[in-house]
Amino acid sequence: MSSKVNERILLAALWICHFLLWTFGDMFALMQTPAEPVTEMIIMIIAPTLHIIMTLMIVLSLKAELKYVRWANIAVPIVFLLFNVQYLSEYSEIWNYILGAGYVLFNILTIWNAWKLPTE
Predict the structure, then answer these.
(1) Residue 98 above 80 pLDDT?
(2) Which of 11, 23, 25, 79 could be cross-linked to 99 through a Cys-Cys bond (beta carbons 3.0 to 4.6 Å apart)?
(3) Does a structural domain hold residue 11?
(4) Domain of 83, in residue numbers
């Protein structure tokens, strides 16, 4: 007894998992530093932008034309994958590597499932 999951829902679920993991990583990183407000402009711009992109990918996966869904779900995770690998090279704490493995896993699963999408 196997049931097939709609590809669009699967891609949206993978983005939701990546989003939740990323948010947990951000919260955990903030707990590691003293309770000071974040004042670095780069963090104040990049973090919300990346979260907005992930949120838009959830909606895009469910509503856009299939050809756009396919290519967006191949291209965007590659960018996130490069970002995640660069992020992992900067830190040495074990929780960073565990979260990083999750980021990489969800990016690869998203790319793989998008690649398998029908072209029409």
Answers:
(1) yes
(2) 25
(3) yes
(4) 7-115
Q: Is position 120 within any domain?
A: no
pTM here is 0.83
Alpha helices, DSSP H only, in the chain? 7-32, 41-63, 66-90, 94-115
Structural tokens at position 10: 């699967």
Give kind and range of the element (H or E) at residue 2. Answer: none
Residue 68, in any domain of the structure: yes
Residue 60 in domain? yes
pLDDT, the chain, mean: 85
Three-state SS at 104: helix
Contact 37, 82 (CB under 8 A): no
**Overall number of domains in the chain:** 1
Question: What is the tens place of the pLDDT at every residue in 19-71?
Answer: 999 888 877 766 666 666 666 776 778 888 989 999 999 999 999 999 899 99
Three-class secondary structure assignment of 37-67: CCCCHHHHHHHHHHHHHHHHHHHHHHHCCHH
